[in-house]
Request: fold
Amino acid sequence: MGKQHIVAHQAATKSVDKIPVTREGFITGMGIAAATLGAAVGLGNIWKFPFLTGANGGAAFLIIYLMSTILIGLPIMISEILLGQRAKGDVVTTLIKMAPKGQPWWLIGIAGILSSFLILAFYTEVVAWVFAYVFKAVSGVLLSTDPDTNMAVFNQLITDPVQSLVWQWVVLFAIGCIVLLGVAKGIEQTTKWLMPILFVLLVVVSIRGLTLPGAGEGLSFLFQPDFSKVTSPMILTAMGLAFFKLSIGMGAMMTYGSYYRNDQHIPLTATGMMVGDLVVSLLAGIAIFPAVFAFGFEPDAGPGLLFVTIPAVFASMPLGSVFVVLFFVLAAVAPIGAMISMLEVPVAFLRGRMGLTRLHATLITIALLAIVGSTVALSNSTLAHFQPFDMTTFDFYDFLTSNILLPLAGLFICLFVGWSWGFSEMQQTLSLSDTRWNRYLTIVLYGIIKFVTPTLVMIILLSGLNLL
Ligand code: PHE
Reply:
């Protein structure tokens, strides 16, 4: 840094709201990257991305998802982190601090807290199945090449109220413990270890998939688009996936932004995270689809793809019993960082606005989650008759968050940054991390956040919900 820059940097740092010295935060740049990537990477990559891509025709869906990630996801991710870094508060506090007095932008934060509960409610249940599957894989129950047999194993698990509930509690207990350890010791340390392990496991499984005879068909399914499959609900689903994948529209990135160091370059970090997340999704696709095709399975099995088709695929290959264990360990490890980022949203809120200690905030959130989560855990057994809008609670929470709440919150975050917070505030926050090209970057970014992203979100949302 030149002398001039250091002065500018110090001045900018001073102008930021006084930060309580005792406030927790991430310590290293590496830790920030790991925690942010850890929040983005999860079952979205290993479960949701493959089953949605499989069910929506492959490459055409992938392209729309890619475009949504770049034009919609990235600008919103940057906006959220910027706001958090600047305000150093939980979602609601951040928006109250940054908005002009009396304007209710903090409602975005409330929507985010609601989304975090609804997503965690079904997400922890999918992780619960994965935990159960790790044990099934080790004990050799998953070694049938017949999808029907695997379907029976899966159905037996999800329709058993006791197993569904208890495994969900195990998951809630595990993430509660990590969040209790705090930002630096819990979140930063955990994700720093998880990310590399995940990556290595995925590469190993992908290489196995690619070296199978007949793998080519799976690759062309993933990379050769058929645009006749494109419909507006499909575009909405692809955009919803982009929101879900990047963990945006619910305040997780805003909350993590508040733990960022002031010299962290946010557009660069966010872009790196987006690319990293895409690489993990593509690797998961490469690990799964070639194998699905090589063994003659169908790619459009839906949410069960991970639990029904995948074990059958592994059972059909040499060393399958080893790979199936590897794969489910991977699927159990991947979502931990994502779950703690979601959990941190209400926990930070309860601490920041209600003055609770981390212990009390975590305990209350976990207890509430056990209640909301049980409506999902029991959605295939005791509560199966309860079908809001003709969907199981599982599907309903998923649809409501990914396809409505997250995009709506994302839309309002753009409108807030573009039309209320404004160019000079954004530029001032960006200049904390000083690089020479910040001015041009800010102009382009601001234009996208103000006009392009909100217009796209609005059109996709309205047409996807048949309101246009
Ligand atoms: N991005 C996470 C995943 O892909 C899920 C998530 C959504 C995490 C929203 C935090 C917030 O699995």
